[in-house]
Write a structure and sequence with these properties.
This protein is mainly beta. It contains one helix and eleven strands. The longest helix has 5 residues.
């Protein structure tokens, strides 16, 4: 059982930055993949990025490329999401997720997820 806790959300103005953190109860280097995704009210889940923690390979969704950066700190068992040049359309609940089955990672299906942290961007 992997427990994930997100933090770092808040309210910012357009063009601002935030760094989200996701603390894991397990060694993240032992987790096959981790992901950030977001969901706004009334909208479907939108993938932000996925990281294969064993080798650090990261894939970003196209709208996030160049603005969002995922990183990991194995010593702290923490995954980060650095978000720059935020836009009102980035407003959503942001979730951290984890998965140990490779086929589920490929399908972007995750067994474990946190409670989320709210990001609100005003114009």
């Amino acid at each position: 059982q992997v427990q994930l806790v997100e933090s770092g959300g808040g309210s910012v103005k357009a063009g601002g930055s935030l760094r989200l953190s996701c603390g894991s109860s397990e060694y993240i280097s032992n987790i096959y993949c981790m992901s950030w995704f977001r969901q706004a009210p009334g909208k479907e889940r939108e993938d932000v990025a996925i990281i294969y923690t064993f080798d650090g390979t990261i894939y970003y969704a196209d709208p996030m490329k160049g603005r969002f950066t995922v990183s990991q700190d194995n010593a702290k068992n923490t995954l980060y999401l650095e978000m720059n040049d935020l836009k009102p359309e980035d407003t959503a609940m942001y979730y951290c997720a984890a998965e140990n089955a490779p086929y589920r990672c490929r399908e972007r299906e995750f067994t474990y997820r946190g409670q989320g942290t709210q990001v609100t961007v005003s114009s």
